[in-house]
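Form 12-C: Joint structure prediction
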Amino acid sequence: MSEVITIQPITRIEGHASISIALDDAGNVSDANVNIMSLRGFEKFIEGKPAEEVPRLVSRICGICPWMHHLAANKAVDRCFGVTPPHAGGKLRELMQTIAHAEDKLLHFFFLAAPDFVIGPDSDYAVRNVIGIVKSNPELAVKVVKMRQMVKMILDKYSKKTIHPIAGVVGGFSKPMLEEERKEILEQMQEVLDFSLFTIEFAKKDVFPKYIEAIQSLGVIKTGFIGTVDDDGALNLYDGKIRLMKPDGSFTDFDVADYTDYLGEQVLPFSYGKFPYAKFWNEGFSLDLENPKGIYRSNTLARINAADKMATPKAQAELEEFRTQFGRPAQGTLLYHYARLIEEVYACERAIEILKDPQITDPNVRAKVEVCAGRGVGSVEAPRGTLIHDYSTDENGLITRANMIVGTTHNLGPINMSVNQAARALIQNGHVDEGILNRIEMAVRAYDP
Amino acid sequence: MTVKVASEWLNSCSGCEISILDMGERLLDVLKVAEFVHIPALIDHKYFGQLGNGKHIQIPKADVGLISGAIRNEEHLEVAQEMRKSCDLIIALGTCATHGGIPALSNSYTSEALLDRYYHTETTDVPDAYPDRNIPPLLDACYALDEKIKVDLYLPGCPPHPDHIFSALTALVAGKAPDLPQKSVCDTCPTRREGKGQLKALRRFLQAPQYGGPSEPLDKMRCFLEQGILCMGPVTRAGCGGNGIVPRCISARVPCRGCYGPVMQDGNQRLDMLNALASNGIELSSLPESVSLLRFSGAHHLLRPAGKRKES
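Section 2 - Result
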């Protein structure tokens, strides 16, 4: 008897999605899809709004990474109006974005992903969560809660509003940094760096070795990758050129203003979310597990694969160790978690570098802006991938057209493939249990959608 | 005593849930008295049973139901109705739930117009048909919770400040009504007001306000509106600064845009703001447009597609 299994909602992720798995008469998987359940229409409803207001509207696309949308939008509107922020204004934006990355990765690793690894993938769902960790490992939990709160409150105290930020403004930043603020944040970020080094050591010693078999099998697919790099090929979260890497490791770099020549988006019947693909490769689009076409991935693993190196010493040492074990490009889906912790180290080191820039406290943080007709494409690396905002304005500086490609959407095709791969490997002859269904969700969770 | 809490997110961004986490160590105290039985952001409870073979959405019984996000599609509606059935008390958490929030700006357009734009962008390979398999159809608009289910407590904010989430939850555990701010942002704003000026027009927020330098205290800076910059403080509910009171955006030298919704639950931020400006002699034509004045509160039929408006 054919049957459909519905995993709804996918939990411990950041959006609204479900999994539909169709079984054939023999109880084997005939098809599996990840359904993205909602559509809000930002591309349409920001039309007609004053462009300088848009960075405060589009932040609401995501309450977990609002800084990313806020800043990609600010960069896009700067370009529409032909303005360049003063040095300190640009650096303050990057500092906020980098610290937001540091917070995001702690949140994902400990609050969303860790229950699968620390409590265990087959454990009772009622305890397989962060509250279960609080009860079973209170010492670690208190440390994590305190540390995440400290990072979050750095952003909150300095920028005044961090869930749906307002301090990035067209032309720069709304407030300069005082010397005493710089000193305090520097001290705190050094503490977060220590914690990030503790975390990656903990994971390398106590977490990943136990799951090495899953790392080599669960949700593993072969794809290309996307990420942002500096002129010298080092990973950059805030700015740079976009690197699109093929599954064989060869790559092309491009300016984000030209993104429409490189990326396309497919529409499939089972998901509101669209499916980006590498139009530039001229091979079309296919999610076929044996022979995918146009498929690349974004987010942490993609960025550390795409980059030649990390720009900071401790993160570079971690990357070298990672590559010795897993090569470049590494394809194991659960390696996203490992890559996330390498980026955590980088984000802390980079924030410290920016805080040591002697010009960071320069009071000149905002350039004068005049509205005009124009077009601007802005991008940053959001935790979940290359985030692109593309706007046009009329002569009054009102938005006439908007297109966005959001970090997670790059991964919608790969997530579908990983779920198919995992479901086909784990469900056989109609045997399904809670542990199996959770392992299929773990293939989704790695992408942190 | 402990209370059982169920939490759901509908047409939302997860910012309200992150604000719950931003209670920080106070969250650990809350967990001692509140048992979360359903919260998709953190706990793996499933609508259709843990083996995914149920036929109807099931949400465990709870004393308190927290719902963030507005209602934009049929799944949101079904989940909201199930939450209502399962929970003794429903809290509308955040301005999307109380007034539609930013996504209710979509109410200026038909759902077809949203789909047409999204599936015809410059990067999209335009499909023969829009997606319709295993996904919930859109409703005709974005609805605040109380347009579809009964709401017992409104906790607006984009997001609500963690101080208020904490005080609401602890008050409910103690069986008391929470004490939430009722004033306007202006009433809690420390900036300096000199009274009605000669101002005839507003200018857009394209340069920093006038103030005496980075270390000058906020109470020395002149009010944004008196500097000729649109600020929604007069028509917006206070609370964004939490127990610290000072409005967040003003602290960053940025004008208020209204994220806590209208001062009175059934207020109209656009109408009230236009009245306030007009009564101060400011030319309304100096605003680039006025839909944005309802950017946080466009549900309750306040924003409608062109041609479907009741009021001109």
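Section 3 - Comments
The longest helix of chain B spans residues 74-86. The two ends of chain B are 53 Å apart (CA to CA).
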